[in-house]
Every structure is written in C-alpha cells, then in structure tokens.
Write a structure and sequence with these properties.
The protein is α/β, with parallel strands linked by helices and about 325 residues long. It is about 35% helix and about 25% strand. The protein has ten helices and 14 strands. The strands form two sheets. Strands 8-9-10-7-11-12-13-14 form an eight-stranded mixed β-sheet, covered by helices on one side. Strand 8 and strand 9 form a beta hairpin. The mean pLDDT is about 95.
Length: about 325
C-alpha cells in the first residue's frame, strides 16, 4: 500500500465516547471518517455536521454493504456489539469494537469466527493496554522479581446513579443493554491483568446488586500459580486507589488503570524510578493507530488486544456475573 494509504471509517454510535475517540483518531493521517450511522436521520445529520462527515446512514445493513467504507468503529450499547460487528464483517469490513467486546463468551466466539471466516481485522477498543505507559509496564514487570500480587481499582461514582435512585432507569444500569459495573468499569481492571498474566486458575467474586438487576460494584479475587490478584470496581462510589504489581524485589505502581499517566518502579531497597513515558498524543490515538497498522499489514488481530485476551476477559466476566447473579437477556438468546 502507498504512503498515502487511508482507511475509510464509518461510525456506529454517537455518544460522548465517540467524540473522545475522534479527537485521538484525527491525529493519525491515515484515519478518514466518511460515514455515520444513527437510528434517526436527525441525529445522523447533527453528528455529521459536527464532525464534517460526508455520508449518513439510518440502515445498518446499507452502511455495512456500502463501498464507501473499509472499516467501522462500533460504540453502540454493549448488547449490540456482537450482532453489529458480525454484520459488518459479513460484508468484508474491518471492525474496531468498543469494550466490553460483547455480552458474553458465546458472542465473543461468534465474532472471532466471523473475523476468521471473512478474513477481516477485529479488535477490542481497550485503549489503556496500547498506550506507551502500559508498554513500559510490560517491559518492566520482570524487574519486580518473582510476582506475588496484582491489585487494581476503578471506582467512579456515576451521575446516572442519582437518577436511578429517583426511580429513573438509566442505560448505564440496564441489564437489557448488558450494562453494569463489571462490564463498564471492571473490564478496565481485568483486561490488563489478562494481558500481563493470562487466565487465572480460580475466581472468587462478590458484588452488590441494584434494583434493576445490574451490578453496582464488585470485589474479585483471582488465583495464579505463585501469585494472587484482586480487583475492585464500582459505579456507586469513588476511589483514588492506584494499581500495583507486587513482586519479591519491587513494586510497579500505576496512578490509574484506565488512564495511565504516571508509573513508578520501587525496589525493595527503597530506590524509586519513574518509568512512565511522556504523553505526546491523545490517549485514544494509540488504539486507532494499532488498528490501522493491523489492517494495513493484513493482520486479523492485535498481539496485545488479541482475540484470545478478549475471549479470556469475557470468560472471567461471565464467571463473575454467574457468581454474583447478573443475567442479561443476551445470555438467553
């Protein structure tokens, strides 16, 4: 492909996360936004005007079949990730799908099978694991010596919870959309763990259920050979606790697991080194760049945000939901 290679993107979804992703995507000159899908023409026109998008669609099937796009970024509700991704892959389109990848393991397997069958790139848009600071963490994990513990926390009070307490069912807490704390926030603590350490041998989960049938928070313990892992997540309380990787020779500390700005390596003798890298680009740039690199090189999956890592992460989430009692309509399909 020539140096002027551009990947023509369509967008499915118009929520706040899309604006953030586009701010990073536009930093890659190979990113070309050409189409937007929305259920209503009014909403599609509004988004198109805001982002200078030349083409709009109100039919998902027509957009998937359109020769105008090469790839799609899917930022729809969780329950729609798998069926929408598969529609686009069936039409030969490459798919970058927001986290969590799908509602359950069955859907993730179907997505991976579609990627293989139609020979298209499929990647979960888990942004932190592709940033320079996480790459630095991966590089320095060996420096903590024998691994003993991974701890991660992402607790962020949702303003939508205020509405829920007033009796208004919000999307963020609607099981019909495959939403809840573990899907929306817990995944940020689990995915990096899987990238670093793989599949745990044992999972023990506790969580707090809300009146809607979604989970509001959770505390999960994992067992690995020679080490333990614990993650905390919540949409009904805040926390400023960092993420740590503890070993016999030292500890790596990440200020936040979802947006990694500062990383230190402290050895047992008290020496502390800053191992984070200067943040030169918007955090979302890196996932877009990784995805475009994959498409350009003809690869179906990322080495970091791999199909296997996405599958293991969803296996873990399925088991957590089973233990705490979260059931989605998608589970019964």
């Amino acid at each position: 492909m020539s140096k002027s290679f551009k990947l023509r993107f369509g967008i499915v979804g118009s929520n706040y996360i899309v604006d953030k992703v586009l701010a990073g995507a536009c930093l890659d000159p190979r990113f070309d936004l050409v189409a937007i899908y929305s259920r209503t023409q009014e909403r599609a026109d509004e988004f198109a005007a805001k982002h200078n998008v030349p083409h709009t669609f109100t039919s998902l099937e027509e957009m998937a079949a359109s020769p105008l796009i090469d790839a799609v970024y899917i930022a729809s509700p969780n329950s729609l990730h798998a069926p929408q991704s598969i529609i686009f892959m069936q039409h030969g389109k490459h798919v970058l799908c927001e986290k969590p990848f799908a509602s359950n393991v069955r859907e993730v397997k179907a997505m991976i099978e579609a990627s293989e069958k139609y020979n298209v790139t499929l990647m979960e848009a888990m942004k932190p694991t592709l940033t320079p600071n996480f790459l630095s963490v991966r590089k320095h994990v060996k420096d903590v010596g024998v691994l003993r513990r991974y701890f991660s926390c992402y607790c962020q009070y949702s303003t939508r919870y205020d509405s829920l307490k007033e009796g208004v069912l919000m999307n963020a807490f609607d099981p019909a959309l495959s939403n809840g704390a573990v899907m929306d926030l817990g995944v940020y603590t689990i995915y990096p763990m899987v990238v670093l350490f793989g599949r745990p041998s044992k999972i023990s989960a506790t969580g707090l259920m809300l009146s809607t049938g979604a989970d509001g928070q959770g505390a999960i313990n994992f067992e690995y050979e020679g080490m333990n892992a614990t993650v905390l997540y919540s949409k009904i309380a805040d926390s400023a606790l960092p993420t740590e990787i503890q070993g016999e020779d030292g500890t790596i500390t990440l200020d936040r697991v979802n947006i990694i700005s500062h990383v230190t390596l402290k050895s047992r003798d008290g020496k502390e080194d800053v191992i984070s890298r200067p943040i030169e680009k918007n955090e979302f740039y890196y996932e877009i760049s990784e995805f475009i690199n994959l498409v350009k090189s003809g690869k179906r999956e990322s080495e970091i945000n791999s199909h296997e890592n996405s599958l293991i992460t969803m296996e873990i989430i399925d088991e957590i939901r089973k233990q705490i009692g979260v059931v989605y309509p998608a589970d019964k399909a």
